[in-house]
């Protein structure tokens, strides 16, 4: 009985929070790559991918490999050691593809500006298709930003980085 | 002579708990430490000296040695955990640890534009392009079995770390990690910064443990100033640390449950966490409790509601906890999957010097909260099951959630709606050190103030010891459980790399 109640409570809360996709059949797959930050954006992404949020119901999925992804979701300042890892992930993604920057660090380095170990953020280095500022941005902010991708608020023709 | 006597026999410094040794006395100390169980907390360098930090009944005791021709005798022959510190010191300052157990690079994998970036005169280096090459130890290179790897980009949400491992018939043989992917140069960023900016940085060493880091940092600064915060600010910090522990533990439990194919349990942990965050975030202004502490006090947008939130959280949590515990214990296959997984052996814990939750789940009696005056009247905790497996750690996480909720309930009437006071700090040229019990164990900060700014900061977390323990505990475990073992031991590249 306890197990049934547990299942029902999760299902009920998820439906309350769901944001359904705007007409896209398959989910938009995101490959997350943490490029060297404190891990806060990753924690919020995990929260978004869990109950009571509904990332899947909103039309997004998290890919296990870059080859299975539509968009690269980057968080954290870009450390010099992660730069070639990021490049390799990008090159492994099929076209068309795009880049989402989650958090201040991924955008402009945040509190981790350029030094011997980090290159700062991706702004002014690559074309960013979706900016999600914040330290870290909340799951609600991230979901609203991602939903704008499906509404076509951002450009359709995603240029390479 | 024992290690303690050797240290206290050194030349006193302006800091009453730090003594200076010459090289011969330092070598004697290393020899004495081979047989002496004096708890080792960390090793750091400032370009001129190396400093080793030990603990005597939870009180700091530091020892200093001047570098001679950029070298010093290693502590790693006597303290395994010193290995990672020695490798870090070489990468950052170029100071060489003589007779060190491991001299492989830790952070500098030849992708930086300079070598020894924190040295007085950094070296010129031609940064290599391309992926960092894994450099195995001799033991790993000669191990049998096919070599495989995990990370640094696996699509997960954790900070980047690479783990190479040999495997045979689906089981891990040897495992060895390569770090540095999340190295942001914290020591250089702290150097010369204002204490407020340094505090902001300390809150971003590792997410989910921000209050512990910022509290320890602020307390170290306040100790250097010879000042303490008022009672209300102290209570507010304790409340924030216990809220953080509850949130962190629920997140970790969800992570473990998710990796152990128990998504329903994971969902319940995250839902309870979100319910609590609805109460917490308006008061703290941050879901991850970042920037809630500042030197001299706390920084809360709605500080007057803190007591009410403590009471509310205790009510929500205590109502939900029994059902969560029952679900954890009754979910098909979950406990069975974790039982016997990633078992930590007493000799390994002693060798790497790991304290905190992982050690408590293996029967060790260690918790910094017991020694902190801030927790007077709140401390009641006693350890639960102690066999050292992932299952025991999970149950201890659940147990500690309940204990922290009880502490919040006891704190609520003491905090009430009083506004926490704030001390104005005068910043002398001095050193300070403080520690708190973070979600995974002891978090300690040593700061040196000079001309009103931070001259140097050293941060100790359980991350270094946790990584060493992980490499031991994952042996003979199923390959697919490698991330689950890492998660259950608190392995975190952000905390390690700094």
TrEMBL record, chain B:
Does Signal appear among the keywords?
A: no
Q: What does UniProt give as the signal peptide span? A: none
Q: Oxidoreductase: is it a keyword of this entry?
A: yes
Q: Which residues form a coiled coil?
A: none
What InterPro entries does the record tag this protein with?
ComplexI_49kDa-like (IPR052197), NADH_Q_OxRdtase_suD (IPR001135), NADH_quin_OxRdtase_su_C/D-like (IPR037232), NiFe-Hase_large (IPR029014)
Q: Where is the NADH-quinone oxidoreductase subunit D domain?
A: 268-411
One GO MF term attached to the UniProt entry: quinone binding
Instruction: Name the keywords, alphabetized.
Output: Lyase, Oxidoreductase
Domain of life of the organism in this record?
Bacteria
Q: Which Gene3D superfamilies match?
A: Cytochrome-c3 Hydrogenase, chain B
| UniProt name for this protein | Formate hydrogenlyase/hydrogenase/NADH dehydrogenase subunit
Q: Which organism is it from?
A: Acetobacter peroxydans
